[in-house]
Design brief:
Layout (H helix, E strand, L loop, with lengths): L4 H14 L5 E2 L1 H15 L7 H9 L3 E7 L4 E7 L4 H6 L6 E2 L1 H7 L9 E5 L15 H7 L10 E4 L2 E6 L9 E6 L2 E7 L1 H10 L7 H10 L6 H11 L5 H11 L4 H8 L7 E2 L7 E4 L4 E4 L5
Parallel strand pairs: 5-7, 10-12
Antiparallel strand pairs: 1-3, 2-3, 4-5, 6-7, 8-9, 11-12
Amino acid sequence: MKQTRFQIAKKDIVSFFDNYRTNIFKYSSIADLLEQNRAFWRLPVHLSAGSFIRLLLDIKLKEHRFQFPHRAVIIYSWGDVPIYNLALSLADNAYFTHYTALYLHNLTDQVPKTICVNFEQSLKRQSKKISLAQNRIDFAFSRPQRESKMIATYGDYNICLLNGQFTGKAGVVQINTDEGKNLSVTDIERTLIDIAVRPAYSGGIYEILNAYIRAKDRVSINKLTAILKQLNFIYPYHQAIGFYLEKAGYSNDQIKLLKKFDINYNFYLTREIKEKAFSETWRLYYPQEFGS
């Protein structure tokens, strides 16, 4: 039986993908590679990207479908790929945050089944910073934290996409772990900030305190405060961070770096606190049972 042009070129095509710089692809990138190499592979002009992909699926290509509430995202991989590398490919310039970052930095004993992937909003024109008032803070923190609805189930995991504020990827590093290679993730300092800002994505306040304790010998509070200034939050999250540092047993020299920030308002460790205790040092409300 006469071989098709694809069958004749199959060895070269497999070698190409085996040695390509990445093994994760979107439909458009495979289509581009087909057009760039069509002449060399001597493939017919009528062979579409969709048909090419179907042929590759019979060899080594795998299709991964992520069904989000309003759209599906399909990613292809050449062979098996760790779920963490797949998750990062769902958005451009994405990186891991919150509970996922805690796990990747070995700051929790838990293995979170929700993978938090952040991709930043575009840089917006600098607008006038919203002025704070105590009644606005009180009202905001009496209500639940808004959470992303962009969640897709993949195997045993939920992939949660967060469209965070533009930071220029402040405090984002690349690491290699047993979970995957070249993983973009917030560094320990940025992670400790993020989890204090969004406890609902981080396992809650007890898990956050445990992370602060485990990070004591690995974190630079000078670096943390520098990133905190860069992020320039509207709310005084430095009061929550200072409280965690104090409760986790950090030194006075480390804690005093957080006390250099203005403390002008009463603030909250988390939202919807039923029975409150109050830290005079940090002007911070926290759950009464958290003080024991």
